[in-house]
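LMBRL protein
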Amino acid sequence: ELRHRASPWQRNLGYPLAMLGLLALTGISVLIVCFHVLELLLDDAAMPRGIQDASLGQVSFSIFGSFGAALQVVLIFYLMVSSVVGFYSSPLFTRLLPERQDTPLTKIIGNCVSLLVLSSALPVFSRTLGITRFDLLGDFGRFNWLGNFYLVFLYNMGFAGLTTLCLVKRVSWAVQAELIRAFGED
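Structure:
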């Protein structure tokens, strides 16, 4: 219903640009994780450990300078939004979605707890995937399990593999549906 009420500019320019942006962000994040996997295989310094004595402003956290830092911020924001969307899309937690003007207090508390857990896990998630090396306010690199090569390697490989699988599945299904629609078959 919302698609039918959208203006032609929105349908013909806005939606495709949004889809291309999402595809680009997903592709860039998978590419960064794949480079991190190669880094893990070649260099022990790629493990997500805490940065020792690196003051803010003295050390660049990206090899691409300001552009790389901005890209890291955009990717972390994208991962945050996609993890929240994925959380609420899972069959187990769809009942937790708030309803307009009719959300009980227990459901509000459950949403607050869920969002707090997701936001607390985001710095460790982005460090483990190699998207950023910045520690924010906490020293998240000091977790003992972040020094386990096999766990970090499998986590990165799992993310890259499953994200690529989802991307290929979504894109191929969308293309397949459009081809079926274009040829008039049901």
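The two ends are 21 Å apart (CA to CA).
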